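User: Please check token order:
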Amino acid sequence: MHTRSTSRALESLDGDLTNERTVTVNTVTLSLFDDSAARLAGLNATLKTAMQRTIAASGLSREQVLDRMNTLAKQAGVKLTTGNAHQLSLATLDKWLNPADREHLPSVLALHVFCLAVNNVQPLAQLLGLHGCGVMTAEDRRLRDYGQVCWESKRRRKAARQLELELEHGLSHGRR
């Protein structure tokens, strides 16, 4: 029950603070030469660097991001850290942002709240990229849908031409 209300609260927060986004999941084909171990080894630093860049691009200070994250978490009734702390501290956020710190990583929930606070999903996009996936904006989705309609239209025109040819062939040979 608590999980449902938390999800709804985060969904409503997401709708208030971010543009509409869709995660696209693709089938991933791995190669024998794919070095997923190397990508995995660099995951922590990649995520933390993406979080740093996202804060820089937002124009917000770390303190402002911290305040936004704590506000969002409080509104949603969720904790961003383990232990007894009721709020995320600047020291913990700094550990999450430090690529050299291999021990302290944000939870998936904390990463989601971070993305909401800075209104940017780039850190999530970095994680999805490791799996051959990406993030689609509403505009990306419209372009995808337009392409699918164009492809379907082309396929139907081809089928109609084929039927026309069959009809013409049947009429020219006296068949009806």
Notes: Strands lie at 21-24, 134-137. The chain has a mean pLDDT of 82. The helical segments are 2-17, 36-41, 43-58, 62-76, 90-97, 108-118, 122-129, 138-172. The longest helix spans residues 138-172.
